[in-house]
Amino acid sequence: MKITKIQSVHNQLVSLANRLGPEAKLPTVKQLCRDLQVSVATLDRCLQNLEFEHVIERKHGVGIFVSPFAGQKVVALASDCNLFQSNLPLFFRMFIEYMRNRAALGKMRIKFYLDFPTNEGEPPSYSDLEFDLNQRRVHGVILLDSGNFHIPGWLLHCSTPCVAFSARDCFPWSVKINHVHLVELGVKLLLEQGCHRPIFLPPVYSNRETVDHIISIFHSGLAKFNPDIHSSWVLNPMQDVNATPSIQGCEELAYRAVMRFFEEREKFCGNLPDGLLSVDDALTPGAIQALKKLGFRLGCDFWVATHINKGAFLPQAKEDSLILLQIDLMQVVDRLWSQLETLAVNQTPEDAVVWIEPQAIELPFKPKRDFKN
Questions:
Q1: CB neighbours (10 Å) of residue 161?
Q2: Contact between 190 and 198 (Cβ < 8 Å)
Q3: String of b and e for 257-281 (b: at least 16 CB within 10 Å)?
Q4: DSSP letters along 106-140, please?
Q5: Backbone CA torsion sign across 251, 256, 261, 262
Q6: Long-range pairs for 335-340 at CB < 8 Å and ≥24 separation?
Q7: Shortest CA distance to 57 belongs to which of 12, 31, 80, 24?
Q8: 353 near 174, Cβ under 8 Å?
Q9: What element of type H or E holds 52?
Q10: In Å, how far are 79, 118, 150, 153, 243 from 121, measured between CA atoms?
């Protein structure tokens, strides 16, 4: 394929920057125009592109310098807009911080690709990422998948190393949270505290298939650990809601879902629920607020088990003796990078799917109750 004049100049400038090394000074604009036989306008356009790619830096009145980031490999962190509009802002602040730290250890650079559906109902195209991959400006891809959109085929089968943090099975290489163990662990710990009539608060996903699967794990977990339990309930925090809510919206949804559930107490025939399992820590504060308003004494006559990311702060944890099911995001990032680094040297990772296991956080629980069914 014939390359354009701009591409030719771009490649020559990159080669020059690599030869000179980080922070070295390049020749003047006048000298570069003469050496490369281009106009000032063409050179300026190439320099703008190289600044955007962190190859060079222009300092007004001083000169053109090779960027301190020149020569670093670039790892793309790609996500669709759904995740950033959802209930997970703290998750992503922590995740991105760990990603940057991990990239710095390998002297690499993270470049973010946030894509939106082109039209209502259409999946994101990741066109900017596709372009940079074709130009070989990206050396690896880590995809954060919301599970709500179709993934472009070229991204699933691109030659550049690509791994995904996703609950779906369509990716050749991925890291997943073990939701089966997360839910089963929560059910088991609630039952150990004497709960016989638990409520399940499922995560807030647009992907109904994922939610239904997690709900089925809750029911199978109850059957596995105590087949005699016949009273359990599943709340629907997304009732009458079409869009994915914000963090404050999640708390409000959980609060309303719990209050709505207890509106007609006579339906329980005196046997009120005595425990709640939440696998979305963005929902937990709202549920706790509602339970307290309803008069439940958490840690005494009602227990709450909740997912939480390691390093996140849930102020109610100690006060209300919550059962915490912790996921280590640093472990997620490490596993993603390990897979990516293995693929980058043309080797095959040991496992196509790496599972992240939840850990129960021990709190000073009060004595177990002696409840009868």
A1: 21
A2: yes
A3: bbbebbeeeeeeeeeebbbbbbbbb
A4: TTEEEEEEEE-BSSTTPPB--HHHHHHHHTT--SE
A5: positive
A6: 335/175, 336/142, 336/163, 336/165, 336/175, 337/102, 337/106, 337/142, 339/163, 339/173, 339/175, 340/75, 340/140, 340/142, 340/161, 340/163
A7: 24
A8: yes
A9: helix 40-52
A10: 17, 8, 10, 18, 13
CA separation for the pair 35, 27 (Å, rounded): 10
Q: Is 69 strand, coil or helix?
A: coil
Question: What domains are there in the chain, each with its CATH number?
Answer: 5-66 (1.10.10.10), 73-177+331-356 (3.40.50.2300), 179-328 (3.40.50.2300)
β-bridge mates for residue 308, sequence order = 326
How far is Cα 54 from Cα 62, in angstroms, rounded to an integer?
Answer: 18
DSSP string, 199-260: EEE----S-HHHHHHHHHHHHHHHHHH-TT----EE--TTTT--SPP-HHHHHHHHHHHHHH
Distance of alpha carbon 318 from alpha carbon 365, whole angstroms: 10
CA distance 326 to 112: 27
Residue 189 sits at the vertex; the CA angle it makes with 247 and 165, to the nearest 5 degrees, is 45
pLDDT tens across the length of the chain (373 residues): 567 888 899 999 989 998 998 899 999 999 999 999 999 999 999 999 898 878 899 998 899 999 887 777 889 998 876 665 554 556 777 888 899 899 888 888 888 888 766 665 566 678 888 888 887 889 999 998 877 667 888 888 888 999 999 888 889 999 999 999 999 999 999 999 999 999 999 987 657 788 888 999 999 999 999 888 877 899 987 765 555 555 557 888 899 999 999 987 767 777 889 999 999 888 899 999 999 999 999 988 899 999 998 888 776 666 668 899 999 999 999 999 999 999 999 999 999 999 999 999 865 544 444 433 3
Would you state the structure tokens that stand for residue 103, as one six-digit string?
A: 């990239």
Q: Is the dihedral of CA 137, 140, 142, 147 positive or negative?
A: positive
